Amino acid sequence: MDYNSNRSKLPLPEYGRNLQNMVNHIMTIEDRTERNRAARTIIDVMGTMYPYLRDINDFKHKLWDHLAIMANFELDIDYPYSPPSPEFFNTPPLRIPYDNNKIKYRHYGKTIEFLIEKAAVHEDEKERDLLIKLIANHMKKSYVMWNKDSVTDDKILMDIEELSKGKIKCTDLVLTETKDILFRNQKKQNPGNIPGRKFQKPDDRKQQRP
What we know:
The protein is mostly helical. It has helices at residues 16-26, 32-49, 59-70, 86-90, 110-120, 125-147, 153-163, 178-189.
């Protein structure tokens, strides 16, 4: 039995073994003109395998690059595009720098710290108070979702004062009740409360005479 595990590894498995055999065959063709014609035929076959990709920019260019990869960059033909070099695929990707910004309380997130920083220096006092109340309610909601237990308003207001480095002090602020937050979360998780029809056509089959 000829098992796939005993065969050579496919460079691009998504095209299958038969197409790889076609690529291997055209590499044995000595006539360059015939080899170019066979390569264009293979490109057409590759395109018909994934017709939904035709709207992608440089679709043909990608197919010719795939052909070069399947031929192990050894196919001598007249490429309509510059084929990629093996070094391009052997070069490791650049290291992605990680964000080193430290978050004081991860259950609140970095955005809350940014909003508190902006609210602390907001000039309009009325808008500032409204913004602080919105931030505090959102912090309480995030805390409840993270801890799943009740949290006092004093805890949220103390965290705001700490995150604002003492610039925001609002000990008398009244926030949304914890039970209301839990109810809203439960309602979002169970959106299947769809009311039925208020009026239903009565079944009058019993009233019909034979």
